[in-house]
Every structure is written in structure tokens, then in C-alpha cells.
Amino acid sequence: MSFSGTVKEELVKHVPAARHCQIAELAAILHFCGHYAGPQGKKEIVQSAEKRKENTLNLFIQAENEAVIRKCFTLLKKTFNINTSVNVTFSKKAAGRSTSCSILLEDPDEVRQVLQAAKFMDGEGVPGDLRGPVSALIIKNACCQRAFLRGAFLAAGSMSDPEKSYHLEIVCTNPAQAEQLCSILLLFQVEARIVQRKKYQIVYMKDGTGISDFLNIVEAHVSLMTFENYRIVKEMRNSVNRRVNCETANIGKTVSASTRQVDDILYLKQKYGLANLPANLRQMAEVRLANPDAPLRELGEYLDPPVGKSGVNHRLRKLSELADRLREMRKEQ
């Protein structure tokens, strides 16, 4: 099972104790997966407000992920004591076999009860647009906001494997739906972005901290711990790699500088003679030739009297400058 599937399985098992939170989560599932259907069921999905005024409307909830329908079934039972059946259909697509699960509410009283509780029906009994913004009354409490986000992720969300990359998204059908979702996340100080993908609006997060906060908000605590373990391992690995790269770069610079210094000293020895150098530079040249791989601090300890790192660097620079002047003089001759 994918990590996204594991998160959803955990969310399915989490059923809020408060009825208002149960309604908020169910409202999210209806908001993303619900349809109005005519007397013929799903073959006659109704979108127009005029047709929704009829009392023959059915409420149809469909999702490819079985977990969504199982959670919807549980919420209908616990919140409204509605017993319904789950239909599973199989179809063949180019990519292989596809499964679709659905719930169909046909009893007018049950449909009205659910829609009124979720604030998708006005005072005159006219069903509203399921894809329109959810009533503020449904998500006025922080606990209900958590439940709504949980239902939204169950119905239309997905996550990448955190071992590979950080990416969480919720697919929305219109800009208003996406903007409301982002505004709810902002109440928890979680920032999400919106991007258009074909005809859909995608609310997404690519920041590990934001995704971690989201899992905490929707109360997927086991998945949160697993996600954090991946983050710790990945950050440690990145830290070690950065340190190794830094050390490798420093070693490369040290070796390059040492090679250049030895070349300059050998040139001076051949063309000028070390005996002609001042005593401090002659001693420095002899110590560097005897210890070509030693760092500056160690070279300073070999001198008599010992010299600090800056002093060693100063003397080696003097030797290099003298070698460069000799090279220039020979070119002019």
C-alpha cells in the first residue's frame, strides 16, 4: 500500500466523538464526491437548480477509493442512523482494471436530513450546489475545521512517498472550493498554494513542515510519526552529504595550495638557492618541502620557534611572491 493509502486508512478509523464534527467531515465528503441524482440513480446526475427543486432527488456519493465510501457509510450510520448499501463496480481502462465504490440515498427524508444538517439545503427545502462554498456554520469550530480537512483529504487528497519527495495535494473542481480550503488551512498557520491542472484547481504543499502540520491537524498521528522519521533520516543524510562535500572541497583546496607552494619553493631552490633566502623564509621552505601534505597549523609547530597559522601563511605567500618575481625577470631577459 502507498503512503497516501496508509494515511487514508488511518483517517478512516478516526471517527470524531462530537456530532457536529461528524457532520463537518461528512459535508467535506459530499462537497468533493457527492452528486444529486434523479430517480434513475447515477445515470441521471442532476446539476441544474430547477431540477433539484423536485422531491424525487437522490443523493449519490461515488469515489474510486473504497476508504472514502467506508468512512461515509460509518458517518451516515453514527450521525443519522442511516443504513445503506455500498455498491462496487469494476471497469476496464487503458491502464488496467478500475474500481469504483458508491452509496446511493433514495429515501427523500434521509436525503433531506443529511442535506439540511450539512447546510446544503436552504430553509425552503431547495438543495444547494454541492460544489459551492461550504457554510461557515459547518466549520466555525476548530475541531470541525480539522474534521472538514480530514474529509477533504480522504475524498480528494493524495501524498507522495516521503522517502522520495514531499508533496501533498487536494484536487478541487473550482477556484472557490480551492480558496476556501486554503483559507481553512491558514487558520492553522499552514500555507498552501493553488495551481490549475487541466480543468481542476489543485491545492498543494511541497514543504515538509507544512505537510507534517497538516497530518497533525487531521489527527493522523501514526502517519505523522512515520513521516517525521523519514524527514529525520533524509535531513541527516543531506547534512552528512553537505559536510562530506565541504570537507572534500577543503581538502582539494589544501592539496592544490600545497602543490603550488612546493612548486614555487623548488623553483626558488633551482634558480635562486635556498641559502640566499632570509633565515625565516629558508626554514619555512625546508619545512614545507619536508612535509608537503601537512596543514598550515602543523607546519607552524615544526618551526623554531613555533609560528601560528597566519604566520606560516604569510611566509609561504612571501616565498610564492619571490618565485613569481623571478619568473617575470627571466621572461624579460
Short structural description:
The protein is an alpha+beta fold and 333 residues long. The chain is 56% helix and 16% strand.
Would you give an account of this structure?
This protein is α+β, with helices and mostly antiparallel strands and about 325 residues long. It folds into two domains: about 5-220, Homing endonucleases (Endonuclease I-creI), CATH 3.10.28; about 250-330, no CATH class. Helices cover about 55% and strands about 15% of the residues. The chain contains twelve helices and nine strands. The protein has helices spanning about 5-15, 20-35, 50, 65-80, 110-115, 140-155, 175-185, 210-215, 220-270, 280-290, 295-300, 310-330; strands spanning about 35-40, 40-45, 60-65, 85-95, 95-105, 155-160, 170, 195, 200-205. The strands form two sheets. It has a five-stranded antiparallel sheet with strand order 2-1-3-5-4. The protein has a four-stranded antiparallel sheet with strand order 6-7-9-8. Helix 1 packs parallel to helix 4 (about 65-80), helix 2 packs parallel to helix 6 and helix 10 (about 280-290) crosses helix 12 (about 310-330). It is rod-shaped. The N and C termini lie far apart (about 80 Å). The model has no long low-confidence stretch (mean pLDDT about 85).
